[in-house]
Design goal:
The protein has 10 helices and 13 strands. The protein is of the alpha/beta class. The protein has a domain of 250 residues. Helix 4 crosses helix 5 and helix 9 runs parallel beside helix 10.
């Protein structure tokens, strides 16, 4: 098959199809990796990767040896577990050559977690007693019994009584345009940490690739282990990592061709001083950033996604524009969810000294 022809076909295939195809046909992998992967939205999670409407997700599942009716069709939990199936701290791992690590983890309060677990067990026990034998509650009853069983087994301390085995499960879910979804799953023995499993999956899918991404998103808490050979060109950046410096953490992954970015979503005022934000063509103000003062923004194009508009902030903004003699092309757009009295806002602006209004329709 002609190399140029093959590359021409690959670059227009949906990204999820290319990723699966190259895993099934290893001879295509070198050609596939040398052909940029075009993705509208790429959402990176610590334990899953989402390419447009397709998600590759890792989880730990429980498989009962005999009571097969208790084997729920689950994608599993996204944390390491002990033999009983209760959450345990993931083992420490060493940063290896060719690996880029972003740590976005809050300190854990083990005493508080233990208290919460005790309350949850008491609540589940109460609910089981309430619905035991109630018609139509069989599915809920089975789910509650599955959840409470590891706590009961650990309290007894009998490893020989454990009636199930844990597996590492990969679930690939694709949502189509009509809202239906298809799933592909694989499972392997759970003998390494879920972090190691995610590293293996990430390297299989992304090592040595160049991605052309419309919007790059990273929001979740956890460890992000990413191959240094991955290069991402993106137009829009939407990154919010609460426990680290979001923008500077993501910077090494971005190709030089990404800058200046078309837009950056900001979540707090401190981010406005970051060179990545200052050089971007447009700022998107996230719904959580409602304390941000609009009159402190210097960009000509700003898109505000607040739940509601505060009149005083809008009028202060317009006054600031007048003082600074903002040039033509300055545009702030608002997307709000609550009912807003737009007429009242406009009346207050019209009442400003020197304001001119257009009475035409």
């Amino acid at each position: 098959m002609d190399l140029t022809w093959t590359k021409g076909v690959l670059q227009y295939l949906p990204p999820e199809m290319r990723l699966l195809l190259s895993q099934k046909c290893p001879q295509l992998l070198p050609i596939d990796r040398s052909t940029p992967l075009r993705i509208h939205t790429f959402h990176i999670h610590p334990l899953q990767l989402q390419f447009n409407k397709t998600t590759f997700k890792l989880g730990i599942i429980r498989h009962f040896h005999h009571a097969t009716e208790r084997n729920l069709d689950s994608e599993g939990v996204q944390h390491d577990v002990d033999l009983f199936g209760l959450e345990k701290q993931s083992p420490e791992f060493d940063l290896t050559s060719g690996e880029y690590l972003i740590v976005n983890v809050a300190p854990k309060n083990t005493e508080m977690k233990s208290r919460i677990d005790s309350l949850n067990v008491a609540q589940m026990s109460k609910r089981i007693r309430e619905i035991q034998g109630v018609p139509g509650k069989e599915a809920e009853l089975m789910e509650l019994k599955n959840k409470i069983l590891p706590f009961e087994l650990k309290e007894e301390g009998e490893y020989s009584l454990i009636p199930y085995t844990h597996y590492l499960k990969l679930t690939v879910t694709t949502v189509t345009t009509d809202g239906t979804s298809s799933k592909y799953t694989e499972r392997v023995d759970y003998c390494r940490s879920i972090q190691d499993g995610m590293k293996y999956l990430t390297w299989k899918l992304l090592e040595g690739r160049g991605l052309q991404v419309g919007t790059l998103k990273m929001h979740s808490e956890g460890f992000y282990r990413i191959p240094e050979t991955l290069s991402i060109h993106t137009n829009h950046l939407d990154v919010h990592l609460k426990h680290t410096d979001s923008l500077n953490s993501i910077f090494p992954l971005l190709a030089d061709s990404s800058f200046p970015l078309h837009s950056v979503t900001v979540y707090q005022e401190a981010e406005l001083h970051n060179p990545i934000v200052q050089s971007s063509q447009m700022i998107v103000v996230a719904p959580r950033a409602e304390t941000l003062q609009l009159d402190r923004l210097n960009h000509h194009r700003v898109h505000i996604r607040w739940r509601s508009i505060q009149e005083d902030k809008v009028t202060r903004l317009v006054k600031k524009w007048v003082e600074l003699k903002k040039g033509a092309g300055t545009m702030y757009t608002f997307v709000v969810h609550d009912d807003v009295d737009i007429a009242s806002v406009m009346e207050e602006i019209a009442a400003m000294r020197g304001a001119k209004t257009d009475s035409g329709e």
